[in-house]
């Protein structure tokens, strides 16, 4: 096996779980998240010579987010509603209720706003890093985050959205 293939395999082995979480939060569906991650890893592997020199994780995140946004747009055009798959792991009922409410609210956001929330608050990226991944300006990230947080506050009531997101991450 070549060093290039081993490098890619090591990257996937160490970062796959985190990247799957990003994909799930970007689309809200486990099966679709797995597809998004597979697509992102395939594209990354095709460009591995170039990508591995820099940090490959931001590249994969960007592919995931762009693919999720593209799929959401296609789905909106075709008016397709994806099936929701319940989580496979058992959790406390309050955690499940909290995550269900939060995921429902996240699904209600436009794809770009959802991507900003996922990258900024779940992945804990800076505004600059988020802007680089999304290919936009820091100002766009700030405005999309502000609009998304306002929609989440409305959807979740006047509860602290930051607290809900923090609890759901745990």
Automatic annotation (TrEMBL):
CDD domains for the chain: Sigma70_r4
Keywords: DNA-binding, Sigma factor, Transcription, Transcription regulation
Residue stretches making up the RNA polymerase sigma-70 region domain: 17-76
Record keyword Transcription regulation present: yes
Residue ranges occupied by any RNA polymerase sigma factor 70 region 4 type domain in the UniProt entry: 101-152
Superkingdom of the organism of origin: Bacteria
Gene3D superfamilies membership: 1.10.1740.10, Winged helix-like DNA-binding domain superfamily/Winged helix DNA-binding domain (1.10.10.10)
InterPro entries assigned to the protein according to its UniProt record, in alphabetical order: RNA_pol_sigma-70-like, RNA_pol_sigma-70_dom, RNA_pol_sigma-E_actinobac, RNA_pol_sigma70_r2, RNA_pol_sigma70_r4_t2, RNA_pol_sigma_r2, RNA_pol_sigma_r3/r4-like, WH-like_DNA-bd_sf
Family annotation (SUPFAM superfamilies): Sigma2 domain of RNA polymerase sigma factors, Sigma3 and sigma4 domains of RNA polymerase sigma factors
Classification via NCBIfam families: SigE-fam_strep, sigma70-ECF
Family membership noted in the UniProt record: Belongs to the sigma-70 factor family. ECF subfamily.
Protein name as annotated: SigE family RNA polymerase sigma factor
Organism: Nonomuraea insulae
């Amino acid at each position: 096996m070549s060093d290039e293939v081993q490098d890619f395999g090591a990257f996937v082995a160490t970062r796959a779980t985190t990247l799957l979480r990003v994909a799930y939060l970007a689309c809200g569906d486990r099966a679709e998240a797995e597809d998004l991650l597979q697509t992102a890893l395939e594209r990354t592997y095709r460009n591995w010579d170039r990508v591995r020199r820099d940090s490959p994780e931001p590249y994969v995140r960007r592919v995931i987010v762009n693919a999720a946004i593209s799929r959401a747009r296609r789905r909106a055009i075709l008016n397709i509603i994806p099936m929701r798959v319940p989580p496979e792991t058992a959790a406390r009922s309050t955690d499940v209720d909290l995550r269900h409410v939060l995921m429902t609210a996240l699904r209600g956001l436009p794809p770009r706003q959802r991507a900003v929330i996922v990258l900024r608050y779940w992945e804990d990226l800076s505004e600059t890093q988020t802007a680089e991944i999304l290919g936009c300006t820091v100002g766009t990230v700030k405005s999309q985050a502000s609009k998304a947080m306002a929609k989440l506050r409305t959807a979740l009531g006047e509860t602290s959205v930051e607290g809900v997101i923090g609890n759901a991450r745990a």
